Amino acid sequence: MNFDIGDLVTRNSYNNDIVFIITDIIDNIYYLKGANVRLKADSFKEDLVKFDKEDIEEKEFETRVKPNTNLNRDDYFYLPGKILHIDSDLDYLNRCLEYYKEANIWAVGINENEENVPLYIKDWLNEYNPNIIVITGHDAYYKKKGSQDNINAYKNSSNFVKAIKEARKFEKSHDKLIIIAGACQSDYEELIKAGANFASSPKRINIHALDPAIIATKMSLSDVNQDIDLKGIIENTKYGKNGIGGVITKGTMYTGYPR
User: CB neighbours of 193 closer than 8 A, spacing ≥ 6?
Assistant: First the structure.
């Protein structure tokens, strides 16, 4: 069977558990990116199988997490928190921006490699002055490089930690700047210790492309005077508490009267 760039495939050696898009083919190595999961991989042709059926599970998930903006607009007006979303993956970034647009939330997206984010994050915070910042892209835990508590065993966790620390120099309060950070298999504990409100991944698993946007949207539409429903927000993501964890903080949305 022949494969082309852009084809959807799965891998036999991993029990065909994740749907990938072929992004490149070099010297008989097929480079892959998760169609819905923030994961990059490579494979030999012999291990690949074309995926040409409807992804029912994905459609059910997208229906479940559709933004709910049923607010009482008869007498009141609402000011949701502003979101700055930094993502190393342009496809995932655009998908998240569409999600914010559907929820009628002000959001700006920046496509930047993980290692560069700590260098520029203060400039972006100054320019856009968001209530919520998402710092995501790709990550991975490499068991051969060390234990799970060794940040050097991760592809990009150290870059995420550096970016979080720079953001916290800009705004120390967890309530005044909500930070959502990490990607697949990230060093959850170090990201939280660095100052993130929410981070991946407690069980070092893969996360869905929309998971950071789902958290950001919930925080944007949560009342500024009330503590969030932490468990409820986390359980709304694809893999729940195994994929993302966080700390109780207040929301970012102001309610005004009269409309």
Answer: none
Say what the pLDDT of residue 94 is: 98
Q: Are the C-beta atoms of 93 and 112 separated by less than 8 Å? A: no
| Predicted model pTM | 0.94
Task: Please tell me the predicted confidence (pLDDT) of residue 52.
Answer: 84
Whether 92 and 138 have beta carbons less than 8 Å apart is answered as no
Q: How far apart are CA 233 and CA 199, in angstroms?
A: 13
Q: What's the pLDDT score for residue 53? A: 81
Instruction: Give pLDDT < 50 ranges for the chain.
Output: none
pLDDT of residue 115: 98
Q: What is the 3-state secondary structure of the chain?
A: CCCCCCCEEEEHHHCCCCCEEEEEEECCEEEEEECCECCEEEEEHHHEEECCCCCHHHHHHHHHCCCCCCCCCCCCEEECCCEEEEECCHHHHHHHHHHHHHCCCCEEEEECCHHHHHHHHHHHHHHHCCCEEEEECCCCECHHHCCCCCHHHECCHHHHHHHHHHHHHHCCCCCCCEEEECCCCCCHHHHHHHCCCEECCCCCCCCECCHHHHHHHHHHCCECCCECCHHHHHHCCCCHHHCCEECCCECCEEEECCC
Residues 6+ apart with CB under 8 A from 53: none
> Which pLDDT score is estimated for 56?
81
